Amino acid sequence: MKKIIVLITILAFNFNLKAQEINWMSLNKALELQKENPKKIMMDVYANWCGPCKLLDKETFHNKDVVAYVNEHFYAVKFNGEGNETINYKEHTFGNPNYDETRANSRNSAHEFADFMGISAYPTIAFLNEKGEFVIPLKGFYNPQQLEFYLKMLAEDKHIELTNQEKYNEYQQAFIPEFKS
Questions:
Q1: What is the pTM of this model?
Q2: Measured in whole angstroms, how far is the alpha carbon of residue 162 from the centre of its chain?
């Protein structure tokens, strides 16, 4: 009987861990899915050597509220800004011709797509609209409540209405975070 209880506990714990993960995919896959089911893209641009990137992943991207919201409203993309993945975007192919495999876990050359997007700092959370067009970059670490503000603003297209600093400030002051730490 004890073995059954232990087994059930382990299975429940493993299921709970699995249920609290963002459904990460490649940018190529997200852009392909947009063709049939238009949805915004949240792209985590990271580097293997980046400490704040690892903290963002651990503290924010594993938060159950962030996980649930991102999985419902966005295609979530993990993109190594210094990796060697081939990106097909708007009829162009981007790679990293200067990538050095021996430096995979240390500073490497910037990926052409990161340069194209103007991303020069890690981590950066880049958002693309339903047409795959770049909307906004968020540079640096964001905790769950800080990220919630932008996730909801972008998912609800509020950013389109915020045409000046005054409107943005009003929206920000009225925003009440709901995500737990």
A1: 0.86
A2: 22
